[in-house]
Every structure is written in C-alpha cells, then in structure tokens.
Amino acid sequence: MSEDNKPEISISMDKTFQVPDNPYDYEMLEPDYERGADVLQAYKEANQDRFAEIKRCFIIGNGPSLKAEDLDKIKDEFSIASNRIYLIFNQTDWRPNIFTATDKKLIQISVPEMSELKAELKVLGVAKPSKAFPVDGAICIETVANANDWLHTGKLPPFSDDASQCVYHGMSVTYLNIQLAVYLGFKEIYLIGMDHQYRRHWHALSPAVAELLAEQLKDKPGLHGRIVSNSNVTRDHFIEGYGQGRVSAKGDDISDYCVDEVTRAYIAAKKYADAHGIKIYNASRGGKLEVFERVNFDKLINKIKLNLNNKNAETKQEKHAALSLNSKQLRNKKFKGKK
C-alpha cells in the first residue's frame, strides 16, 4: 500500500463505555446449557452423513462487501449467519441453515425479528453469569470469555472442538461460528462479507499483542484502549442503520469490535484448523482480513457449479448404465424363456 492510500487514523482518548439497560423490559431467562448441548449433539448426529458428504460450509459476515446476489449464488450451500442478517432477506431468496448471535446489546433490540427468523438451528452464545433474552426457538451454548487469560497478554484465545460443551469468546460472533462449523465436521469453511474494518472501533493493543501481530498490523501504531477512526471506511455493514438502536461505546456509529483482538482469535482458529486438516478460506470481496488464504468468490462458485455438473453427469451415466444392464438382463431372460 502506498503512502497516499494509507488510511487516515485519528485517536480519541474518550474510553466511555456503557452497558445499556433492557429497553424493552423482556423477561430475562436462565440459559439452559444442558438442553442446548443435547439439541446441538442431536443435530450433529442427525446430519452426520449429510455434512460428511457436502464437506464445506459458508460463514456469512455482515460487512459492506456482502451482496444479496452473492447470497443467491450459495442458496443451495450450507451456511451459518448471525445477528441482523435478516435485514438483507428482502433482497434474496437465500436463508441460513444456522443462525447465531452473541452480542447482548444487539440481541436485546432484535428479539422479535430473531424470534420470527426460520432456520434449522438458532444458537445464542451466552457467557456466565449473564441471562438470555427470550428468542423463540433458540438454544443457548456457553461462551467462555476467559478475557483475563488472553486479552492484552499476547496469548491466543482457546479454541473449542466441542461447541455443545462451550465455545470460546473471540470478540466476534464469527469465532463462535468457526468453532460451530468445526464441531459439525466441516472440512472446508468459506468466509464472505468479512471486511474486518470499521469507521470507528476500539483499539486495544498492548505491547505484547502488538509484537504478536506485527505482520498483520505493521502499519498501525501500538495504541491501547482508544477509539480509532478510519476515514477510508464509509460503512460498517451491508446496510445503513444496521446498528440502529444499539447503544455502544460513544454513539451508535462506533463498534465495540476490537480489530486487533479479533485478529488474534482468527489466528487461533487458523492454527487449530491447520493442525486438524481443516481449510478456512476468505472469499470476501475486499476487506482487510488477511489471516486466512483468500479465494476469489466468483471462481469458487464456478468451480462448485462445474463439480456439481460433473457429479450430475456421472449420476446420469450410472443410471443409464444400470437401465441398460437391466434391459439386457430382461432380454436374456425372455430369450432363455423362448428356448
């Protein structure tokens, strides 16, 4: 990147952070982790053969690079999507197989919409001792924050290979989704709509973290606990007003997303995947997520279509061969009968 094209970074010392009260007066529920584990295990067992056959899944981010027409292209693929993804439903026939949410402040303003959303499985990640919002049809799985063990320390967060028992917090719902996809047995995971950059966000680098992320963040100063503004980013999500009603750090246009900490979570996911024969690819159109190998979305879709066409052709040939064999056997049987 040339000096002229580098993002303009401005810093605010304001570290105000408020957790809002429940504005809709929902009755908060104790998360039933045991039921969540049972339902998730049953779902995995019931779909084991199906997932083993299709091998791949798509994890959908809600960044500005997400396009409704791209979702239409994967409507027959298995996908996991999150949070306010339903705001794009009026533009596409695609729907996610699994819906997830972990952002408490976003869930509390979206309970009616999330309750109406249809999916094979709806999963809320809830950290102890928090209670859960009453999203109809959703199960709760424990999200272990263990922030003191890795935030600002330079360590990588843990990665769970059994999401029915717990997932680990990676400062982004995408980290939950990757752990969930691995638990279900997918060997190829494709990310789309993962822009991994915001107009304004928390920057929480400690010196230890800065050293660990030197390559990924070499063009950023070692700042800690500040709000960073990026003038080159014009929109945070695929639609304006995505976060409307959600109270965040300093107004609704500031994300609680800590790019640096989430980057470390993605590094942890890649490390686990590489060690277990799982491939995670970034098929997003643009953005700043460089932890995972990039693949071109259009070429990927063309490859999937080609493989599907070849598979259908092989199936037709096999059926034709079977019919021919049956016809031949029937003729031979009739001929022998005439003798």
Structural write-up:
The chain has 339 residues and is α/β, with parallel strands linked by helices. The chain has one domain. Helices cover 35% and strands 17% of the residues. The chain has helices spanning 33-46, 48-54, 68-73, 104-107, 111-116, 147-150, 173-184, 207-212, 259-275, 297-338; strands at 9-12, 56-60, 79-82, 98-101, 121-126, 138-144, 167-168, 188-192, 200-204, 224-230, 255-258, 279-282, 293-294. A nine-stranded parallel β-sheet has the order 7-6-5-4-3-2-8-12-13. Strands 1-10-9-11 form a four-stranded mixed β-sheet. The longest helix has 42 residues, at 297-338. The chain is globular. Mean pLDDT is 81; it is low at 1-20, 220-225 and 248-254.
List its salient traits.
339 residues; alpha/beta; 4-stranded mixed sheet; 10 helices; single chain; 9-stranded parallel sheet
Content-based structural category:
alpha/beta
Separation of termini? 84 Å
Q: What percentage of the residues does DSSP assign to strands (E)?
A: 15-25%
Average pLDDT number: 81
Radius of gyration: 23 Å
- In total, the number of domains comes to 1
Order of helices and strands: EHHEHEEHHEEHEHEEHEEHEEH
Question: Order of strands across the widest beta sheet?
Answer: 7-6-5-4-3-2-8-12-13
Low-confidence stretches: 1-20, 220-225, 248-254
* Count, helices: 10
